[in-house]
Amino acid sequence: MAARPDGFAVINRQRGVRLGVGQLQRFADAVRAELGLAEAEAVICLVTDAEMARMNEKYRQKRGPTDVLSFPAQNNPRKRRAGLRQRTRVVQARAKRGASYLGDIAISPKTAERNAKKDGRELRMELRILILHGLLHLLGYDHETDQGEMHRLEKKLRRRFGLTWGI
């Protein structure tokens, strides 16, 4: 997958769920601006449950589809303890040297739709939450190992973007 030259690209490779790619693109661009990632690029690809299940099995050794997977680029800073501002500055510095590609995010709208219904959210909001979550992973955050750092930042950003945290 390759990003468009001017930022984040949202690509729809599934047909099972109707959705507004333009709205998701605008949200991704707003997150990019909010985080000061003007020079950064990433691809957000909407895929089928079958494709997501294959990726989940291959890369996480877990069966079945999941809602979001992130694939950080090799040049991505992975400092867990650094704050977002410092991490963003590192990404921006690398971008000036031509190393601006953060990585890829895969999202299954079908799984997102099931999760949204279960959690009492609209699909549009669920997809935005997944874009934000995936992007934090591309920036080097890992909620499975960081003692709550990613969770706290994601909660703060969800409030900033008007996304509900949970029921």
Quantity of strands, as a count: 4
Radius of gyration: 15 Å
Poorly predicted regions are: 1-5, 77-97
The strand order across the widest sheet is 1-2-4-3
- Fraction in beta strands: 5-15%
Percent helix range? 40-55%
| SSE string | EHEHEHEHHH
Whole-Å distance between the termini? 35 Å
Principal-axis shape: globular
CATH topology: Collagenase (Catalytic Domain)
CATH architecture: 3-Layer(aba) Sandwich
Strand-pairing-aware structural class: alpha/beta
The averaged pLDDT comes out at 84
The number of helical segments is: 6
Main β-sheet description: 4 strands, mixed
The H-level CATH homologous superfamily, spelled out, is Metalloproteases ("zincins"), catalytic domain
Would you state the CATH class?
Alpha Beta
Number of domains: 1
